[in-house]
Amino acid sequence: MTQHRKHRGFRTERVVAQYLSTVWQGACVGRGSGKDIVNVPFDVEVKARAGFQPKAYLAQLKSRTAISGELGFGVIRLNGQGEDARDYAAIIRLEDLLPLLILRYGHLDKEPTEADIDRCSGCGSYMIRRCLTCQPTTTDVSNAIYLKKSLMDSTVDQ
Fold first, then answer.
1. Nearest-angstrom CA–CA distance, 134 and 27
2. Can you tell me the distance from the alpha carbon of 97 to that of 6, in angstroms, rounded to the nearest whole number?
C-alpha cells in the first residue's frame, strides 16, 4: 500500500469519527486491532480502498461482533469522494439491518394506503400516523437488540 493510500485511510477514519461525534460526542479513532471508531455503541469498520471487497468487510465485522454482540457496519469512502462523510456508503448485514427497520417502520399493522400518508406540520416530511423525522435523535435500541436476539433464537413469529 502506498503512503498516499495509507494516509487517505487514516484521514477517512478521522472524518467519519468527526461526523459521528455530532451525535456521540466522544467518538474518535481507535488504534490497534478492533473497532475503527471508539466511544460509540456499535462497531464501525472504515474503508477507503480502491478495491471493493464487501464480503471481506462483512466477514471482518461478523467475527468481531459475534464476540462483542454489538451492531456492526462498514463505512466505505469510494474513489472520487471528498471528505463529506454524509456521502460515504455504508454496508451492513441484512440480519443486522432488519431489527433497525422494524424499530423504525414496525409501527404499521397494515399496508398503508394513499389516504394514510400525510405531511408533518412540524418539519414537512411525509409520514404515516406519526412523524419519525421529528422524533428525538436518541432512540432506545434495547428493543432492537432484544428483537435481533429473538429473531436469531426463532422465538418471534415471522
1. 24
2. 30
Q: Which carries the bigger pLDDT value, residue 123 or residue 40?
A: 40
The predicted pLDDT at position 137 comes to 47
Beta bridge partners of 46: 75
Q: Which pLDDT belongs to residue 138?
A: 45
pTM tops 0.90: no
- Judge residue 114's burial from the number of C-beta atoms within 10 Å of its C-beta, 0-12 exposed, 13-18 middle, 19 or more buried: exposed
CB of 60 closer than 8 Å to CB of 72: no
Cα–Cα distance, 121 to 42 (Å, whole number): 33
Whether 120 shows a pLDDT value over 70: the answer reads yes
60 near 89, Cβ under 8 Å?
no
Contact partners, residue 91, CB within 8 Å, separation at least 6: 54, 57, 58, 73, 74, 76
